[in-house]
Specification:
Layout: E1 2-4, E2 16-18, E3 26-29, H1 34-37, E4 45-49, E5 53-55, E6 59-66, E7 69-74, E8 79-84, E9 97-100, E10 106-108, E11 113-116, E12 121-132
Antiparallel strand pairs: 1-2, 3-9, 4-12, 5-10, 6-7, 7-8, 8-12, 9-11, 11-12
């Protein structure tokens, strides 16, 4: 808060102030429940080159399937793997996580972090697209 001086000629003890309000939006991404993930025959996925960013609004859910990455399922059914920065453990995100909304509405590798409910923060190192293995 910055204090300003009263205008010239003002009588009495006048104080003016300026207040800046900033807003933060945090989005919670739930992990899929185990029974939702069970299917009759498990599908094996292959990693392909992924995009630099994903639209936050397109993320429907997530799952932890590897020790250093979190898999995201989008509203259209596509899957992407967020490989976490070195030293981050995916197990810290087992109960879901939060992402901070960005001006461009995207979750980008090399820029954005995911935050576990317990306080752990990890940067997304790279995105990989997951496609069903045809074998």
């Amino acid at each position: 808060m910055a204090m300003l001086l009263a205008p010239a000629g003002a009588s009495g003890n006048v104080q003016l102030a300026q207040v800046t309000v900033e807003q933060r939006v945090i989005i919670r991404v739930p992990l899929a429940r185990q029974r939702e993930m069970q299917v009759e025959s498990p599908v094996e996925f292959q990693e392909k080159k992924g995009p630099k960013c994903l639209a936050i609004r397109s993320i429907r859910g997530a799952s932890v399937t590897a020790k250093n990455s979190v898999d995201m399922t989008l509203v259209n059914g596509d899957r992407y793997r967020a490989k976490l920065e070195r030293g981050c453990r995916a197990v810290d995100f087992w109960s879901g996580f939060y992402v901070q909304a960005t001006k461009d509405g995207s979750l980008c590798s090399g820029r954005d972090v995911i935050r576990a409910r317990g306080g752990t923060e990890c940067e997304i190192d790279i995105w990989r697209q997951l496609v069903p293995d045809d074998e």
